[in-house]
UniProtKB/TrEMBL annotation, chain A:
<dbReference type="InterPro" id="IPR005475">
    <property type="entry name" value="Transketolase-like_Pyr-bd"/>
</dbReference>
<dbReference type="InterPro" id="IPR009014">
    <property type="entry name" value="Transketo_C/PFOR_II"/>
</dbReference>
<protein>
    <submittedName>
        <fullName>Alpha-ketoacid dehydrogenase subunit beta</fullName>
    </submittedName>
</protein>
<keyword id="KW-0560">Oxidoreductase</keyword>
<dbReference type="InterPro" id="IPR029061">
    <property type="entry name" value="THDP-binding"/>
</dbReference>
<dbReference type="Pfam" id="PF02780">
    <property type="entry name" value="Transketolase_C"/>
</dbReference>
<dbReference type="InterPro" id="IPR033248">
    <property type="entry name" value="Transketolase_C"/>
</dbReference>
<feature type="domain" description="Transketolase-like pyrimidine-binding">
    <location>
        <begin position="4"/>
        <end position="179"/>
    </location>
</feature>
<keyword id="KW-0786">Thiamine pyrophosphate</keyword>
TrEMBL record, chain B:
<protein>
    <submittedName>
        <fullName>Pyruvate dehydrogenase (Acetyl-transferring) E1 component subunit alpha</fullName>
    </submittedName>
</protein>
<dbReference type="InterPro" id="IPR017596">
    <property type="entry name" value="PdhA/BkdA"/>
</dbReference>
<dbReference type="InterPro" id="IPR050771">
    <property type="entry name" value="Alpha-ketoacid_DH_E1_comp"/>
</dbReference>
<keyword id="KW-0560">Oxidoreductase</keyword>
<dbReference type="InterPro" id="IPR029061">
    <property type="entry name" value="THDP-binding"/>
</dbReference>
<dbReference type="InterPro" id="IPR001017">
    <property type="entry name" value="DH_E1"/>
</dbReference>
<feature type="region of interest" description="Disordered">
    <location>
        <begin position="1"/>
        <end position="25"/>
    </location>
</feature>
<feature type="compositionally biased region" description="Basic residues">
    <location>
        <begin position="7"/>
        <end position="16"/>
    </location>
</feature>
<keyword id="KW-0670">Pyruvate</keyword>
């Protein structure tokens, strides 16, 4: 066990991938000499060389498109998109190419490409630097979508994502980047596509992922002081979603609240609510509720505290669920 | 001023070629030492007041930009992208514009905004996070800052198409459109598509590339093998390289390109060769990727120092004029600073009200919910 920030954990995880897998590459804007704008790739170019840690031209479609070409040639690229709001120039390459080429090839081609994207708000940034675009990718068959919420998961999940042969969109909650926690560098503990129950409870289930896991955990702690025991589940994988732990939890509690930063409209929370109502209908005591960003563009940073799900809004939803 | 202009049209032979990465052959009218030099294709004659005015613009731009950096350090702005070193590129091109011209900026164009006489507060509000930088872009003929690299180049190309379709080109009073972008932006597909559009539709567009040598940490070597002004040729768009630290040359070259556009002769690309003296933004640490020697090399090419030398030598301005400009710059800075500090947090309703022309009922409901929720917290009815 060592204590690390999420940034350090990702850096160490990438290091292990680069050491173990000679075909792996890191590529993106400013990832080499600078070590990335968040320093996730700090020192990697020095240790692994500029052939493997590649500062690319400023072109996102180029980054993903050439990563596909490199993968066709046997390489295993790990791409960085500098910020969530800058992934869209690469949309065709992600959604129509990376996601579909393996299927079109009749399974003959595999594209082991990982796309790391720092995402989410809460850091006081200007526009396009605080978005949560996970639903676009979770909606796209052929892509797997995961997100880490703590340093230990960051360390292991990036390695697991790089080890698989499917394309993975790897969302990193940037407002948790500097959070420190224990990392078990000996054993992974949990598979990449498994949800994790962080706290057991009987009254209601809070379902969160990425940056809102911390919000949910804090809400559960506050609720506990008021005598309400909430269960908290970290989804970790958004596509595929690990449904069994959710079904089991909701069959026990009868109530669920999904929390994410992305707008609620047609989002991950909507899918979770739909599946829970399909599978746990007779166990539900109240409708599945969602606490999400509003259905508007991410606002100016001075308004982001009003936009983002916070402890108050989560507890308010729990109250509404209980009162139903 | 108009009679001193030369058309930008040139043969491939007369177009300057860069001798090396550090010493390109560009249009220069004023050396770093402040010597006025001649160029076969470009010249400039302004009134004495106009010459002095360029100095005033350069100094005020530098001081207002420095205030942006200071305000960020003091926690009053979330971020500031400094233009230090790029004043001549912005003032020279900004002053070459005619009132009817339209500007599409990137996010570092405070100097152009100043030259256009537009209230600068919008840019400070954007970086303070009190709004998204919105303004009346039609009235200002200056569009909103574009954070997504190169996105604005296509908007400008489309706008320029519209200008031509409206028949607003074809003589010296025609409208021209200028889009500002960086060296890094030339790698994006959008930029290259903008060149194609501008060329194919022969639009009245000037692509003004501020090649400040960096895209965050990455040098030109990571963006191109052939400089943008030469790449433009391949798209059928004439390109010209200018000393971006020379306000006179930048003025002359941009004016020629704009005049060409307004007369209906088509697009061109001006590459202003300059240098970003500050880190990319206040969030960046440039010591990780460049050294002091490089900064010294460029300090010696400072755009204001050379221009001041020339003004003095020509007897166009003296110490008392320079002192008066400094005083005025100080006043501008103080006034702006006070206004920035007075920018207050927006109402929560702000995020809902402008998304659609016709607000869908669901958004109206969320708006009400947000207002009610905020009120409930303020009432303190809930101990949480
Ligand atoms: C599409 C997109 N990708 C990445 C970024 C992040 N980013 C912001 S500025 C910048 C470098 C831009 O360099 P350049 O075009 O040379 O302009 P400069 O900052 O030097 O003025 C990058 C990569 C962005 N804003 N938009
Ligand atoms: Mg640049």
């Amino acid at each position: 066990m060592t204590t690390m920030s999420m940034i350090k954990a990702l850096n160490e995880g990438l290091r292990r991938v680069l050491e173990d897998q000679p075909k792996s590459l890191v590529m993106g804007e400013d990832v080499g000499r600078l070590g990335g704008v968040f320093r996730v790739t700090d020192g990697l170019q020095k240790d692994f060389g500029s052939d493997r840690i590649i500062d690319t031209p400023l072109a996102e479609s180029g980054i993903i498109g050439t990563a596909i070409g490199l993968a066709l040639r046997g390489y295993r690229p790990i791409c960085e998109i500098q910020f969530d709001g800058f992934v869209y120039p690469a949309f065709d390459q992600l959604v129509s190419q990376l996601a579909k080429i393996p299927n079109r090839s009749g399974g003959r081609v595999r594209l082991p490409v990982v796309v790391r994207i720092p995402y989410g708000g809460g850091i006081g940034a200007i526009e396009h630097h605080s978005e949560s675009p996970e639903a676009y990718f979770a909606h796209t068959a052929g892509l797997k979508v995961v997100t880490c919420s703590n340093p230990n998961d960051a360390y292991w999940m990036i390695q697991q994502a790089a080890a698989g042969d499917d394309p993975v969109i790897f969302f990193e909650p940037k407002r948790r980047y500097h959070s420190k926690d224990d990392v078990d560098t000996e054993s992974a503990g949990l598979d990449l596509y498994r949800a994790r129950t962080l706290r057991e409870g009987r009254t209601a289930t809070l379902i969160a992922y990425g940056p809102t896991v911390d919000v949910a955990v804090n809400a559960a702690a506050a609720a506990a002081e008021e005598g309400t025991d909430l269960e908290v589940i970290d989804l970790r994988s958004l596509s595929p979603i690990d449904w069994e732990p959710l079904f089991a939890s909701v069959r026990k509690t009868g109530r669920a609240v999904v929390v994410h930063e992305a707008p609620g409209n047609i989002g991950v929370g909507a899918e979770v609510a739909a599946r829970l109502s399909e599978e746990c209908f007779y166990s539900l005591e109240s409708p599945v509720l969602r606490v999400t960003g509003y259905d508007v563009p991410y606002p100016a940073s001075r308004l982001e505290d009003d936009y983002l799900p916070n402890l108050d809004r989560v507890l308010d939803a729990v109250d509404r669920s209980l009162e139903y | 001023m108009g009679d001193t202009q030369r058309p930008a049209k040139k043969t491939a032979k007369s177009r300057p070629k860069p001798a090396s990465a550090n010493e390109p052959e560009f249009v220069q009218l004023l050396t770093p030492e402040g010597q006025r030099v001649q160029h076969p294709d470009y010249d400039i004659t302004l009134t004495d007041d106009e010459y002095r005015g360029l100095y005033r613009d350069l100094v005020i731009t530098r001081e207002l930009d420095a205030q942006g950096t200071a305000l960020q350090r003091q926690g009053q702005l979330g971020l500031w992208p400094s233009l230090l070193g790029q004043e001549a590129a912005q003032v020279g091109s900004g002053r070459a514009l005619k009132p009817q011209d339209t500007v599409f900026p990137a996010y570092r164009e405070l100097g152009v905004q100043w030259c256009r006489g537009i209230d600068l507060i919008s840019s400070f509000a954007l970086f303070r996070g009190t709004d998204l930088g919105g303004r009346d872009v039609a009235a200002d003929r200056f569009n909103m800052y574009a954070i997504v690299i190169a996105s604005q180049t296509l908007h400008a190309a489309g706008y320029a198409m519209g200008v031509a379709m409206d028949g607003a080109v074809g003589n010296d009073d025609g409208e021209a459109v200028v889009v500002y972008h960086g060296d890094g932006a030339t790698s994006e597909g959008d930029f290259n598509e903008a060149l194609i559009w501008a060329g194919v539709f022969n639009s009245p567009l000037v692509l003004f590339c501020q090649n400040n040598q960096y895209a965050i940490s990455e040098t030109n070597a990571r963006q191109f093998r052939l400089p943008p002004y030469r790449r433009a040729e391949g798209f059928g768009v004439p390109g010209i390289l200018v000393d971006g630290n020379d306000v006179l040359a930048t003025y002359a070259v941009t004016q020629a390109a704009l005049d060409r556009a307004r007369r209906g002769e088509g697009p061109s690309l001006v590459e202003a060769y300059t240098y970003r003296m500050q880190p990319h933004t206040t969030s960046d640490d440039a010591t990780r990727y460049r050294d002091e020697a490089e900064l010294d090399f460029w300090r010696a090419k400072d755009p204001i120092v050379r221009y001041r030398k020339w003004l003095s030598a020509e007897g166009l301005a003296d110490e008392s004029y320079f002192a008066a400009v400094d005083t005025e710059a100080g006043e501008q800075v103080r006034a702006l600073r006070a206004r920035v500090m007075a920018l207050t947090d927006p109402e929560v309703t702000e995020m809902f009200d402008n998304v659609y022309a016709e607000m869908p009922p669901g958004i109206a409901a969320q708006r009400a919910e947000a207002v009610e929720f905020q009120a409930s917290l303020e009432e303190g009815s809930d101990v949480r």
